[in-house]
Specification:
- By secondary structure, the protein is an alpha/beta fold.
- The protein has a domain at 12-227: Aldolase class I (TIM Barrel).
- It is 49% helix and 13% strand.
- The protein has 14 helices and ten strands.
- It has an eight-stranded parallel β-barrel, surrounded by seven helices. Strands 2-3 form a two-stranded antiparallel ribbon.
- Helix 4 runs parallel beside helix 5 (117-131).
- The protein is globular, with a radius of gyration of 18 Å.
- 47% of the residues are buried.
- Residues 297-313 have a biased composition (Low complexity).
- Pyruvate binds at residues 52, 207.
Length: 313
C-alpha cells in the first residue's frame, strides 16, 4: 500500500464493531446485519476485535471467524483488525495468520499489564510493524494497557514505513496537537467526546464506539468539518453528546448492545465478566436516542429497524 493510498484509507468515521453472541456462540447473521447497517450509513471503515468487540473474551479461532465474516460482508469497505496481547511471540503468530486476509490495517495497543516502558514499547511496535501484512495503527490507550506512550515515542514510531496512524485515547491535548502538527501519523480520535475537537484541529478521522448509534450523524459531522461548515458540525456534536455520555456510563459495550438489541439487530448478550447494561441505563439511552431522532429524523437508510426487518423477512 502506497503512502497516498494509506492516507486516503485512515480518515473519516470508523466503527469498532461489537461482536454479537447468541447464547455462547458468535452470531454470524447478526454480525452481517450490523456490517450492512453501518455500510448503509456511509461510514468509512470498520474495526474488528477491538475492546468494544470483546476481543479479550474470544479465542484465536473465534477472532479469525469474526474477521472473515466481516470481510465477506464488507465488500470494498476497509477493515482493520485488532491485535492485543503481552506475549510477543504469540502476538506475532496471530499477526502471521492475518497475512492472507485483505486488511486495511492492524490496530495494536502497547502490551498490557507488563508496562514495558518507552524503549520496550518502541521495540514491540517496530517488531509488529516489520512483520505486519498491512499498515499498523497504534492504539494509545494507557488506562487499559498501563503504558502511556510518550509523544517522542509516537513521533519516533511515525518514522517507520509501515506505521500509518494512531487511535488517540492518550488523554493529552498537547500530544494530540503535536502528532497532528508533525504529520507523520494519521490521527484518529478514539475518545468519542473528543471527536469534534480532534477533527477541527486537523485530525484525519474518528474511531467511535458510539457511532453504532446513528452512524449517519457521525458521518455528517465529519463531512461538515471537512466542508468548513462548523456551525453544522457543532450542532450535530452537541446533539450526539448526551448519547455518547450514556454509551459509556456503564462498561462498554453493554449499553450499545442493549440499544442495538432494541432495534432488532442483535441479541443483548455479552460474555462474562462483561455485564449487560442496567435496565435504567438502557431506558435512559433509548430516550436520549429518541430525542436525537426528533432533532435529526433518520432516513430509511439510516434506521436500524427497517434493515433488521428486511433481514428477518
Amino acid at each position: 500500500m502506497s503512502v497516498s493510498s494509506t492516507e486516503a484509507v485512515f480518515q473519516g468515521v470508523w466503527v469498532p464493531l461489537v461482536t454479537p453472541f447468541s447464547d455462547t456462540r458468535i452470531d454470524g447473521g447478526a454480525l452481517r446485519r450490523l456490517v450492512r447497517y453501518c455500510a448503509a450509513a456511509g461510514v468509512d471503515g470498520l474495526v474488528v476485535c477491538g475492546s468494544t468487540g470483546e476481543a479479550a473474551a474470544l479465542d484465536d479461532a473465534e477472532q479469525l471467524a469474526v474477521l472473515d465474516t466481516v470481510l465477506d460482508e464488507a465488500g470494498a469497505l476497509p477493515v482493520v483488525m485488532g491485535l492485543a496481547g503481552n506475549h510477543q511471540g504469540h502476538v506475532l503468530q496471530r499477526l502471521a495468520a492475518f497475512g492472507t486476509r485483505p486488511l486495511a490495517g492492524v490496530l495494536a495497543p502497547a502490551p498490557y499489564y507488563v508496562r514495558p516502558g518507552q524503549q520496550g514499547a518502541l521495540a514491540y511496535f517496530r517488531a509488529l510493524a516489520d512483520a505486519a501484512p498491512a499498515p499498523l495503527v497504534l492504539y494509545d490507550i494507557p488506562y487499559r494497557t498501563g503504558t502511556a506512550l510518550d509523544t517522542d515515542t509516537l513521533l519516533a514510531l511515525a518514522r517507520h514505513g509501515n506505521i500509518a496512524a494512531v487511535k488517540d485515547c492518550g488523554g493529552s491535548l498537547d500530544k494530540t496537537m503535536a502528532l497532528i502538527a508533525d504529520g507523520g501519523l494519521r490521527v484518529m480520535a478514539g475518545e468519542d467526546l473528543q471527536a469534534l475537537s480532534t477533527l477541527c484541529l486537523g485530525g484525519s478521522g474518528i474511531i467511535a464506539a458510539a457511532a453504532h448509534i446513528r452512524p449517519d450523524l457521525f458521518v455528517a459531522m465529519d463531512r461538515a468539518v471537512r466542508a468548513q461548515h462548523l456551525d453544522t458540525a457543532r450542532r450535530l456534536f452537541h446533539a450526539l453528546a448526551p448519547v455518547i455520555r450514556l454509551v459509556f456510563a456503564e462498561p462498554n459495550p453493554g449499553p450499545l448492545k442493549a440499544w442495538l438489541a432494541g432495534q432488532g439487530l442483535l441479541p443483548d448478550v455479552l460474555r462474562p465478566p462483561m455485564p449487560r447494561a442496567s435496565a435504567d441505563l438502557a431506558a435512559r439511552l433509548a430516550r436520549a436516542v429518541a430525542e436525537l431522532d426528533r432533532q435529526f429524523p433518520p432516513s430509511a437508510s439510516s434506521s436500524a429497524a427497517p434493515l433488521s426487518r428486511r433481514a428477518a423477512a
